[in-house]
Amino acid sequence: MRNFDLTPLYRATVGFDQIADLMDRVISQDVSQPSYPPYNIEKTAEDAWRISLAVAGFSTEDIAIEQRENALVVSARKAETEEEKGKTYLHRGIATRAFERRFTLAEHVRVTGASHENGMLHIDLKREVPEALKPRRIEIAGPNKVDTKVIESAPTTEV
After folding, report:
1. Residue 78 and residue 71 in contact, taking contact as beta carbons nearer than 8 Å
2. 57 vs 6, 44, 49, 89, 94, CA distance in Å?
3. Which H, E and C letters describe the chain, residue by residue?
4. What is the mean predicted confidence (pLDDT) over 110-136?
5. Mean pLDDT of the 78-93 span
6. Could you tell me the pTM of the whole model?
7. Is the confidence at residue 112, as pLDDT, over 80?
């Protein structure tokens, strides 16, 4: 595997730290990505997305969703009940092992809701750009609208 040094990128750019960090994170990640639980990411509107995770065997109380700055962390831990302790499985194909799945969110993307039904966890996301950061139209003054002030000069005396 190739190693890339992004140090020149940090020295030559200002304000692009997040992009460089993202590239560095993607390049340095191991080839063996965790594949449990499987998930989908779908675009539901221009500025809205939905992450769906297959969490069969977990109840709503077993799952935790947390948003920390620009990261979404979904974790689950199933406590073994007294009823399950006495069971002997011949085949156990439904994985209920603990997991933690992290998603990196863009700026101003917030979780708007979550639902758990039929073994699927749905997390709705939306980009909410603050008013101060939205583009605004600047009015251009025409020649008749320009406020011109004439500064009168003091009378000069000739000798």
Report:
1. no
2. 43, 27, 25, 15, 7
3. CCCCCCHHHHHHCCCCHHHHHHHHHHHHCCCCCCCCCCEEEEEEECCEEEEEEECCCCCHHHEEEEEECCEEEEEECCCCCHHHHCCCCCCCCCCCCCEEEEEECCCCEEEEEEEEECCEEEEEEEECCCHHHCCCCCCCCCCCCCCCCCCCCCCCCCC
4. 88
5. 76
6. 0.64
7. yes
34-132: which CATH number, 3.40.50.720, 2.60.40.790, 3.40.50.300, 1.10.3720.10?
2.60.40.790
Confidence of residue 90 (pLDDT cuts 50, 70, 90): confident
User: What per-residue confidence (pLDDT) applies to 67?
Assistant: 92
pLDDT of residue 52: 95
Are 37 and 99 in contact by the 8 Å Cβ rule? The answer is: yes
Could you give the CA distance from residue 39 to residue 45 in angstroms, rounded to a whole number? 19
Domain ranges (residues) in the chain: 1-32, 34-132
Higher pLDDT, 17 or 107: 107
C-alpha 21/C-alpha 19 separation (Å) is 5
